[in-house]
Amino acid sequence: MASSNTVKIQEVTQVTPFSDSTTEFSLPLTLYDTFWFNFPLVERLYFYQITDLTPRFFNSFILPDLKHSLSITLLQNLPLAGNLIWPTDAPKPYIYYSPNDGVPFIVAESTEDFNSITDNGVHEAVELHPLILQLVTSDDQAAMIAIQITLFPNQGFCIGITSHHAILDGRSSTMFIKYWAYLCKQLGKDPKEEPSFLPELIPSFDRTIIEDPTGIDMEYVNNWFAYTRTRSLKVLPHLTPNTDGVRATFELTREDIQKIRNQAEKQQQRFHLSTFVLTLAYVFVCLVKARGGEDNREIIFGFTADYRSRLDPPVPLNYVGNCVMPHFRIAIARDFTEENGVAFVAEKLSDVIKEIERGELEGRQDTLSRMLTLMETLSEGVQCLGVSGSTQFDVYGSDFRWGRPRKVEIVSIDRIGAIALAKSRDKSGGVEVGVVLKKQEMEVFSSLFVDGLKD
């Protein structure tokens, strides 16, 4: 399906760290990094609405400030300006930075209606693809992040960031954007004044804090080699083919979540009824019902857990890298579609959280091999329900000086078959849920989602 969003490229360059340093260095990958290194790219869009934004003002003021602040941001996040490399004599890939390395950076202009592309209604999923810059990857080298800034004349602009999953997990990627936004806003107050930084935004790249005495990192490298049948840094293009999908955003208010909680508690009162669990349980049930099919078909469902505060010793929250692992359960469609479906899913997800809290963490030698085995079943008609993003990440707090984002989208969910989660923009305690489905399934899902809250 071709995109109706016409984008014209205005500039292709790279932004380098704001420094005259000639130091080169390398940084190893941990077991949590090698777990993800062939996984599809992560793509996120931040839309900023500015009425009557002219190309002249954008190119004279906004764009230079974004570039300058990005350059200083990269100085504090120097490894991200380098590349992921895999020399023939190296057993596993590693991060390498050398002078003059930088982040691929594109400036573009779109003819799309800004209000239309940022509303919550149904759109073709491919409409957002032209707003994202693809990373350059090969067998032995891959860029780690790429940035595209797209102007919507007289309407606003968007920032697209693409990141390699071997380098950044969701918390790290979100922190990078928040750092960049905070710095850009600080520089706007007085360009001559040295900006101050919030301690929680100062990045840490210390790989020594993650221990791996048994060499699980190499087990994961070998798992990927067996799965892809090649020694390469090229990422998988997609996990679930969805070239004709449509995208929409749904909202659960605090009152909606309480309704779901009340209903679930009628069925079972002994599990962890957090906003996260209730949101997933409700959305997953709607997704299974929208797909239809046989009652005994297999459903794989779960989420990715952050281990920073759970490892011993704990990893600081400002750690930049991967410190997450997936947790999945398997059931059949009937478990979701029966009257107590939401309670059933909530119980299973709550059991997973309890296991994590008891210290029964993933990160074993067979964790990746089991996940890759599950991935192979997706082509056989098994429905996989996962999550990208989190209700804990305040993505709408990234104000570069021109206001908070009007909309934040995780573009890559149409390639990995996940839903997108974010804390609501209005700070009401609600949740935004991004979904990509086939058009007919989206119509059914929308009806189920709305009517279920009424009931």
Characterize the structure shown:
- It is a single chain.
- With 455 residues, this protein is of the alpha+beta class.
- It has two domains: 7-228, Chloramphenicol acetyltransferase-like domain (Chloramphenicol Acetyltransferase, 2-Layer Sandwich); 245-454, Chloramphenicol acetyltransferase-like domain (Chloramphenicol Acetyltransferase).
- 32% of the residues lie in helices and 24% in strands.
- The protein is built from twelve helices and 17 strands.
- The chain has helices at residues 31-35, 55-76, 114-117, 170-189, 216-228, 254-267, 275-291, 333-337, 341-357, 367-376, 413-416, 439-454; strands at residues 7-15, 25-28, 42-49, 83-85, 94-97, 103-110, 123-124, 141-143, 145-152, 156-163, 245-252, 298-306, 324-332, 383-390, 407-410, 418-423, 431-438.
- It has a seven-stranded mixed sheet with strand order 7-11-17-16-14-12-13.
- β4 and β5 (94-97) form a beta hairpin.
- α2 (55-76) crosses α4, α6 crosses α7 (275-291) and α7 crosses α12 (439-454).
- It is globular.
- The model has no long low-confidence stretch (mean pLDDT 92).
Strand order of the largest sheet: 7-11-17-16-14-12-13
Number of strands: 17
Measure the end-to-end span: 36 Å
Our Rg estimate from Cα atoms comes to 22 Å
CATH architecture of the largest domain: 2-Layer Sandwich
Output the helix-strand order: EEHEHEEEHEEEEHHEHHEEHHHEEHEEH
Tell me the major beta sheet: 7 strands, mixed
Percentage of residues in DSSP E strands: 15-25%
Mean pLDDT: 92
Distinct helical segment count: 12
Given the helix and strand composition, which structural class is it? alpha+beta
- Any idea of the CATH class of the largest domain? Alpha Beta
CATH domain fold name of the largest domain? Chloramphenicol Acetyltransferase
Helical content (DSSP H or I, runs of 4+): 25-40%
CATH superfamily of the largest domain: Chloramphenicol acetyltransferase-like domain
Q: Any idea what the shape is?
A: globular
Count of folded domains: 2
Low-confidence stretches: none
